[in-house]
Amino acid sequence: MSKLPSSPGFSLSEKRALVAGASSGIGVACAVALAEQGAHVTLAARRLDRLENISNQMKERDFKVDILQLDISDIQATSKKISKHGPYDILVNSAGLARHSKTIDTTLEDYDAVMNINVRGAYFLTQSVAKGLLEAKKAGSLINISSQMAQVGGQDRAVYCASKHAVEGFTKAMAIEFAPNQIRVNTICPTFIKTELTEQTFKDPAKKAWVEEKIKLGRIGEVEDIMGAVQYLASNASSLVTGTSLLVDGGWTAD
Cα separation of 34 and 39, whole Å? Predict the structure, then answer.
């Protein structure tokens, strides 16, 4: 009789993780999720005061954590800091920007601001962490927090949708390129999650009704809904998963 298989498990012990955009919302949840599985987590964002507060709370739970002030729109500075402080076995990029408007009202300033963070910043952040892994000859898992809007369209969201579709595109290409080096590249695509960024949307009764109608499970997402997904993609439990998107959308895109 053949031996029963064993689960690879979700342990991230001895792993170093960089979480960009870790000063609020989904980024905080991802940092805690990784730390819960034993990873040493580096919290990265522009707002140092927020990082220090979150770091202190995590240390109270005996998590391994440090902080790194990082603005992913500054490509050269980001590359230098990651080269100095890495390599990181895991990247979670939760840094992002949304400026919603009707297409005919889109300004060049808004377009450039969103693309600068969501595409340009995400691309070169992923590149920088991958470089460190390649130089160290290490495997790794690189995760960009994308959106269900990377799979569909949405009202007043032409620029945002374009940026997230682009993230899906470079994720697939990077996954192919880095696969021989056992570096996996994936995205997580959440539906609307209750955070500071979505607060304005939920204040509009019509938009709130639109969101609730589209989510088949009948509720708006919480940051906790993302935590299991990031643990899965960061760990050996997903060792054969690369170049894909993990939808956490309550059935929004099932139509």
Answer: 6
Cβ-based neighbour number of residue 151 at 10 Å: 17
Domain, as residue range, for 23: 16-249
Task: Convert the pLDDT of each residue in 40-75 to its tens digit.
Answer: 999 999 999 999 999 999 999 999 999 999 999 999
Please report whether residue 109 resides in a domain. Answer: yes
Sign of CA dihedral 106, 107, 111, 113: negative
The vertex-81 CA angle with 77 and 84, nearest 5°, equals: 140
The tokens of 181 are what?
């080096």
**Predicted model pTM:** 0.95
Question: What CATH number did the domain enclosing 55 receive?
Answer: 3.40.50.720
Q: Hey, what are 92's tokens?
A: 């979670």
Q: How far apart are CA 206 and CA 203, in angstroms?
A: 9
Instruction: Output phi, psi for 123, to 5 deg.
Output: -60, -50
- Give the catalytic positions in this structure: 160
Structural domain contains residue 106: yes
Q: Encode 112-157 in three state secondary structure.
A: HHHHHHHHHHHHHHHHHHHHHHHHHCCCEEEEEECCHHHCCCCCCC
C-alpha angle 132/190/33, rounded to 5°?
A: 55
Burial of 9 (0-12, 13-18, 19+ CB in 10 A): exposed
